């Protein structure tokens, strides 16, 4: 039974490493590749969730005297999954802001410049 769990652990480790790598690449990709990468990461996050569910089922089948160690590992994996989802959301927000700026022709400094000029006007 624990060999199944350990196999799932290995799969989870490989998958989360791939997801982490892809999340880091999203902001630097051209727009058409970003859409594809975002879709790919979403799919892999779903796969990782499914692996966690399988691992959770395996832990429930482990005798109570051995279950504690596996339960602790599961908590750690769930925290890692939460961090990946948060990182992915941030990556997508950065991607969305970049697309918005491209569409509006905004280089990200115009509101900053407006704020500066308003404060100078107010001081006169």
From TrEMBL:
Keywords: Coiled coil, Membrane, Protein transport, Transmembrane, Transmembrane helix, Transport
Annotated region described as Disordered, given as residue ranges: 102-124
InterPro entries: SNARE, v-SNARE_N_sf, Vesicle_trsprt_v-SNARE_N
Sections of the chain in a coiled coil: 34-61
Compartment list: Endomembrane system
Membrane topology reported for the UniProt record: Single-pass type IV membrane protein
Domain Vesicle transport v-SNARE N-terminal span(s) in chain numbering: 1-91
SUPFAM superfamilies: t-snare proteins
GO biological process, one term: retrograde transport, endosome to Golgi
One GO CC annotation: ER to Golgi transport vesicle membrane
Main location: membrane
GO molecular function (one): SNARE binding
This protein's record includes keyword Transport: yes
Family: Belongs to the VTI1 family.
Protein name: Vesicle transport through interaction with t-SNAREs 1A
Species of the source: Suricata suricatta (Meerkat)
């Amino acid at each position: 039974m624990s060999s199944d769990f350990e196999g799932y652990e290995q799969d989870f480790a490989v998958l989360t490493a791939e997801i982490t790598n892809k999340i880091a690449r999203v902001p630097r990709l051209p727009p058409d590749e970003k859409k594809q990468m975002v879709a790919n990461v979403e799919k892999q996050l779903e796969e990782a969730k499914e692996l966690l569910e399988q691992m959770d089922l395996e832990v429930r089948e482990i005798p109570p005297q051995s279950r504690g160690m596996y339960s602790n590992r599961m908590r750690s994996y769930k925290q890692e999954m939460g961090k990946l989802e948060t990182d992915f959301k941030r990556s997508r927000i950065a991607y969305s802001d970049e697309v918005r700026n491209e569409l509006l022709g905004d280089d990200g400094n115009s509101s900053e410049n407006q704020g500066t000029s308003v404060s100078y006007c107010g001081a006169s």
